[in-house]
Amino acid sequence: MKRIIPCLDVMNGRTVKGINFTNMRDAGNIVELAARYSADGADELVFLDITASADRRATMPVWVERVAATIDIPFIVGGGVSCEKDVETLLLRGADKVSVNSAALDDPNLINRLVRNFGNERVVVAIDACQEEGVWRVYSKGGQTRTDRELFEWAAEVEARGGGEILFTSMDHDGTNRGFACDALARLSETVGIPVIASGGAGALSDFYDAFALGHAAAALAAGIFHDGHTTIREVKEYLINKGVEISWT
Known about the structure:
Layout: E1 3-11, E2 14-19, E3 22-29, H1 30-39, E4 45-49, H2 61-68, E5 75-78, H3 84-92, E6 97-100, H4 102-106, H5 109-118, E7 123-132, E8 135-140, E9 145-150, H6 151-160, E10 165-170, H7 182-191, E11 196-199, H8 205-213, E12 219-222, H9 224-227, H10 233-242
Parallel strand pairs: 1-4, 1-12, 4-5, 5-6, 6-7, 7-10, 10-11, 11-12
Antiparallel strand pairs: 1-2, 2-3, 7-8, 8-9
Helix pairs in contact: 8-10
């Protein structure tokens, strides 16, 4: 079953949305949006504290706790996760899975340790990348810091270290409403054998279909298209079912 996943990018306790990881604008109350998406049939919810790594702090547990108390769907939380204690705290506050990004780039062995301590089903590795002269370059710290990592090599290492899923965001497509990076998604899906979540660029119903049919993603994540009321999760699912995509319906 393919999954539809709304995302809450959180800054200072509010949901925000930007374009290409910049020009953030307010998009609503985190708890109200979480409740709406849970009721509307989301398969999972992603919560990313987008400034935590750059601010050198962990995700605010109180925000996580408030959202977890509101929803009854699997809950993925990321932002500033740098050690086993951070993961333990988030799981105790209601997260079902934890997403790690910058800290894993700094210390890839963190992935191994998290998998060993919590199981690969709880470990999602987020990868933010943009295309530079034909190469997909990986960034850390919420898209602020360019690394020497290449997308597909890093994804293969993530799988080798036991990561359970990859959340791939194309920085080039983020917030543009011009569709997912389907070519990169397809190559990622060929490179690794673990689920790949597509993120960045959803602007129309057809974009979700393309993420699955062309990009072979296991799930499609979106934010602005839902926050701004351009469509609903149920409308996306109805469209995909009519297109023959196997997707859950509750």
